[in-house]
Automatic annotation (TrEMBL), chain A:
Keywords attached to this entry: ATP-binding, Nucleotide-binding, Sulfate transport, Translocase, Transport
Gene name per UniProt: cysA
Residue intervals of the ABC transporter domain: 17-251
UniProt keyword Chloroplast present: no
Superkingdom of origin: Bacteria
Signal sequence coordinates: none
GO MF terms, alphabetically ordered: ATP binding
Source organism per UniProt: Dyella flagellata
Keyword Transit peptide: no
Protein name from the UniProt record: Sulfate/thiosulfate import ATP-binding protein CysA
UniProtKB/TrEMBL annotation, chain C:
SUBUNIT field: The complex is composed of two ATP-binding proteins (CysA), two transmembrane proteins (CysT and CysW) and a solute-binding protein (CysP).
Entry protein name: Sulfate transport system permease protein CysT
Keywords, sorted A to Z: Membrane, Sulfate transport, Transmembrane, Transmembrane helix, Transport
Key word ATP-binding present: no
Transmembrane parts of this sequence: 12-35, 55-82, 94-114, 134-152, 184-205, 242-263
Keyword Flavoprotein included in the entry's annotation: no
Top-level taxonomy: Bacteria, Pseudomonadati, Pseudomonadota, Gammaproteobacteria, Lysobacterales
Subcellular location: Cell membrane
Membrane topology: Multi-pass membrane protein
Length: 395, 299, 274
């Protein structure tokens, strides 16, 4: 197989999945724009993005249900795109499961084995054993004789999983695995699927638009927007060090602040910080973001930025406040714990003082291509601070 | 209460009828009377247009007693017509079944240029007069037709022979199976077929194991209607058959010829077709009742 | 590189096109070709005779009237079948399909037997001065018969899917029952009703078997266009005359199809808004 492939710069053997420069266009809509990604053996990767970001296109191309306009996908040195979906050995769990309604659970799971060419088809007894094992793994023993319509949403999802695993795929794809479930079942199944993946160790990729889902379950998160990959990183990385304003907004609910760079200084709410980094001084565009949990109330009344409390909601252990800061027309969202709020609670009708514990600065060059990012921890006073160190990120 | 008030104020049968139609909750008296009137009106329409003709067929067929009836049916020409009708249907219906399945597979699972036109073309025979359908076949496959002379040289007579009857029947009943399957398969989408594909199934395996079981009742339904129409087709077949008694007369043509000579015998033969109709409607109802959910696209 | 993921695109589409080509496209092309060969003058020579014009007038006029009657009766029947529960409702529902499934020749002789002067209904109507069999009224009756199920079966699913929440919404907004019917229900049903009307019309224009028996086919009076086509082919072997007339019928069918396609788009656009 390797001999037939076009010469490749690297030896991909035992390197998992190597996706490079995928492009897919539907009419004028660009679903995938130069997407490259490598997935290690046994990794659990989440592709996260809003609807229309191209994540489902990526999944369908990997499954063989669509072909890219250009680009390549290699698995252990084997050109995956040259194989049709039938022979690809990729397990796909559909968003709405696509279980065969006229087959029992056992028949659904056995399908992939029963349709094998006569020579490769296991004996009936072996199929039966395999199905039993799989149903045991997904904790559905005893439901083998049921029809999909007689199952709950969570059970259906596990049948779909067992069915995909029956063909012993080397890559497992899950399309919005929890999209069709209600909120409670969702949360329970997340942990279950995480553990399940760990026990199998099969390279898996799942697509979701739910940030919590991606961050909670995946080893690595791929954040997509408008057909492009914005950032690839561990859940911690994409939260702490968002590469682009989009990632900051989407993952960490980053909110824009009216910061601007004039000369050598970053100006924000009447405070100015000296900037040491020439790249930012030269930046064409600057975006300053703050996360809801980085806005904290000042201990002493009168301290910090003056803000007005627009609304306050108590949501099971946390307090969500909507604030209006002086000289900024966009309301800011702040999240505090109940305990912190009780400690600070010095708010009056006139307002309260707030501190920004950390803001993230993104600077783009004139082409808008290179983003600079840094997290600043402004002290309460307007002492000059050095902004940096900077990291260059190709976006 | 507003309903009753409307009806009372508006007076007149139209207002009462309207009130009956759109009343909500527990209807007031004038509304209930109007409801009953509406139901009775509908029953009258159905009784007058549907039940009476059906009863007339059997009444006329049995007018001269059972013995006459049986004798009329046992007539050799009639038996020949029965055989021919069954043969034509036995060829035409499976052909249309295959066509319907192929058309539905193509329309439901693929996007291609001209798809809308293809859909319109499939429906076309529905809206063309059967007589025109028969005539156009003569223009192509008749003695002086485009292909007719060549086919005759190959020893195949189409018009005024069996192939013509089959062709006319196929043309007239072409959309029946496709019409049932296309909306259903389009609504079901390609997810399950794609799932089967990723699990390693081949095209035929996907069709026989995944698609067919899900559309089987709709397929049966379409075949049933197609068959009823195929056995009862008159206009198109009339034009291409040449109606040679005992040779190219199907049952409906036999009814037509007998009706000019012996009305009761014609009704005896017609009653056979009417029985087929009643049977068809019965099975159709049964399928709708037992498997209604699998016929409609929205469930 | 093909984008068709599922197998069988070439086989299914190819076979569909093959059948459509040999059974539908080729014959229809032959019809248009033959009609075109006549030229406008030749075509008018075939169509412009008193007999043909009378038949066309009866076919189209009768069909228009019949479809209108079907629209009214069909709305009534569909409404009653969907909204009310009464004895034998299922059986009534099944009966609606009778004109679909009953062979047209059988329907034709049954109607004739009923309405002939010595028939069960005909003998009762005769003293009132109403003649049905062998008159234009008979033609109309047969056309109404074949068209009714089209209207009922088109309306039924729409009526079912509307349920009653729309009316209830209108009710809570203070609409009277009269307003609910004419402002809410009828506008919603109109596209569907028109589609059913067009289907019934197409069927009535082309209908042969059910009509010719009860029509009696009297010269200038009760001859319909399909009957003339058959006459030209069957007894006069006049294929060109038949083709000229057939082309008119085909054109009418195609126009109706176009109208229906437009109607369906209208309905669909509306469905999105709803």
């Amino acid at each position: 197989m390797v001999a037939n492939c076009a010469p490749t710069p690297k030896d991909y053997r035992n390197m998992g999945i190597e996706i490079s420069r995928l492009r897919r266009q539907f009419g004028t809509f660009v679903a995938l724009d130069d997407v490259s990604l490598s997935i290690g053996d046994g990794e659990f990767v989440a592709v996260l993005g809003p609807s229309g970001s191209g994540k489902t296109s990526l999944l369908r191309i990997l499954a063989g249900l669509d072909q890219p306009d250009s680009g390549s996908v290699f698995r252990d040195g084997q050109n995956l795109l040259a194989l049709d979906a039938r022979r690809r050995g990729v397990g796909l769990v559909f968003q709405h499961y696509a279980l065969f309604p006229h087959m029992t659970v056992a028949q659904n799971v056995a399908f992939g084995l029963r349709v094998r060419p006569w020579r490769l088809r296991p004996k009936a007894q072996m199929i039966k054993t395999a199905v039993e094992e799989l149903l045991c793994k997904v904790e559905l023993e005893g439901l083998a004789g049921r029809y999909p319509s007689q199952l709950s949403g969570g059970q259906r999802q596990r049948v779909a999983l067992a069915r995909a695993l029956a063909i012993e795929p080397r890559l497992l794809l899950l399309d919005e695995p929890f999209g069709a479930l209600d909120a409670q079942v969702r949360v329970t199944l997340r942990g279950w699927l995480r553990e399940f993946h760990r026990s199998l160790g099969i390279t898996s990729l799942f697509v979701t638009h739910d940030q919590d889902e991606a961050l909670e379950m995946a080893d690595r998160v791929v954040v997509m927007n408008r057909g492009r990959i914005e950032q690839v990183g561990t859940p911690e990385q994409v939260y702490r060090q968002p590469a682009t304003p989009f990632v900051s907004r989407f993952i960490a609910r980053g909110q824009s602040l009216p910061g601007e760079v004039r000369g050598q200084h970053l100006h924000l709410f009447g405070h100015a910080w000296r900037i040491e980094n020439p790249a930012v001084v030269d930046a064409h565009e600057v975006a300053v973001h703050v996360r809801p949990e980085d806005i904290v109330p000042a201990v002493t009344p009168g301290d910090g930025l003056k803000a007005q409390l627009l609304s306050l909601r108590h949501v099971a252990g946390s307090v969500r406040a909507s604030l209006r800061v002086e000289n900024w027309d966009q309301p800011l969202e702040a999240h505090w714990s109940e305990r912190d709020w009780a400690r600070y609670s010095g708010a009056t009708d006139d307002g309260l003082g707030i501190h920004l514990q950390a803001v993230t600065v993104f600077a783009a060059d004139r082409e808008g291509r290179v983003h600079m990012r840094s997290t600043v921890h402004p002290p309460s006073a307007s002492a000059p601070v050095a902004v940096g160190p900077w990291r260059r990120i190709e976006a | 209460m507003a309903t009753a008030l409307d009806a009372a104020l508006g007076g007149g049968p139209l207002m009462a009828a309207v009130a009956a139609v759109v009343s909500i909750g527990r209807p007031a008296w004038p509304t209930r009377i109007a409801r009953v009137a509406l139901v009775l009106a509908a029953l009258t329409v159905l009784g007058w247009l549907m039940v009476l003709p059906l009863l007339a067929i059997f009444a006329e067929a049995l007018r001269h007693g059972l013995a006459f009836y049986l004798q009329a049916i046992r007539e050799p020409d009639t038996l020949a017509a029965v055989r021919l009708t069954l043969t034509v249907a036995a060829i035409a219906v499976p052909l249309n079944m295959v066509f319907g399945v192929a058309a539905a597979w193509s329309m439901a699972h693929f996007e291609f240029r001209g798809k809308t036109w293809l859909g319109a073309l499939i429906d076309l025979p529905f809206s063309i007069s059967p007589v025109v359908c028969g005539m156009v076949l003569i223009l192509v496959y008749g003695k002086d037709g485009w292909l007719g002379s060549w086919l005759e040289a190959q020893g195949l007579q189409v018009i005024f022979a069996m192939p013509g009857l089959v062709l006319a029947t196929v043309l007239v009943t072409l959309p029946y199976v496709a019409r049932e399957l296309i909306p259903l398969m389009q609504a079901q989408g390609s997810d399950q077929e794609e799932a089967a594909l990723t699990l390693g199934a081949s095209g035929w395996q996907i069709f026989f194991r995944v698609t067919l079981p899900r559309v089987r009742w709709a397929l049966l339904y379409g075949v049933l209607l197609c068959n009823a129409r195929a056995m009862g087709e008159f206009g198109a077949v009339y034009v291409v058959s040449g109606h040679l008694r005992g040779l190219t007369n199907t049952l409906p043509l036999q009814v037509d010829q007998l009706s000019q000579e012996n009305f009761s015998a014609a009704f005896a033969v017609a009653s056979l077709l009417a029985l087929l109709t009643v049977l068809t409607l019965g099975i159709k109802r049964l399928v709708e009742w037992r498997h209604g959910g699998e016929l409609r696209a929205n469930t | 590189m093909t984008r068709h993921v599922l197998p069988g695109f070439r086989l299914s589409t190819g076979y569909t096109l093959l059948v459509l080509g040999s059974c539908v496209l080729l014959p229809l092309t032959a019809l248009l070709w033959t009609a075109c060969e006549l030229g406008p003058a030749g075509w008018w020579a075939q169509i412009g005779t008193r007999r043909v014009l009378a038949a066309l007038k009866l076919s189209f006029g009768g069909a228009l009237l019949a479809a209108t009657i079907d629209a009214v009766l069909g709305l009534l029947v569909a409404w009653v079948l969907v909204r009310y529960r009464f004895a034998f409702r299922r059986q009534c529902d099944a009966l609606v399909d009778l004109p679909f499934a009953l062979p047209t020749a059988v329907a034709g002789i049954a109607l004739t037997a009923l309405y002939a002067p010595n028939g069960w209904l005909g003998s009762r109507l005769a003293p009132l001065g109403i003649e049905v069999a062998y008159t234009r009224l008979g033609v109309l009756l047969a056309m109404v018969f074949v068209g009714l199920p089209f209207v009922v079966r088109t309306l039924q699913p729409v009526l079912e899917s509307m349920e009653s929440d729309l009316e209830e919404a209108a009710y809570t907004l203070g609409a009277t029952s009269f307003q609910r019917f004419f402002r809410v229900l009828l506008p919603l049903l109109l596209p569907t009703l028109l589609t059913g009307y067009a289907l019934a019309l197409a069927r009535a224009i082309g209908e042969y078997g059910s009509v010719i028996f009860i029509a009696g086919n009297r010269l200038f009076r009760t001859e319909i266009a399909p009957y003339l086509i058959v006459q030209k082919i069957d007894s006069q072997y006049d294929y060109r005359g038949a083709a000229a007339l057939g082309a008119v019928m085909l054109a009418a069918s195609l126009l109706l199809l176009l109208a229906m396609a437009w109607l369906q788009r209208w309905t669909r656009r509306w469905a999105v808004v709803r």
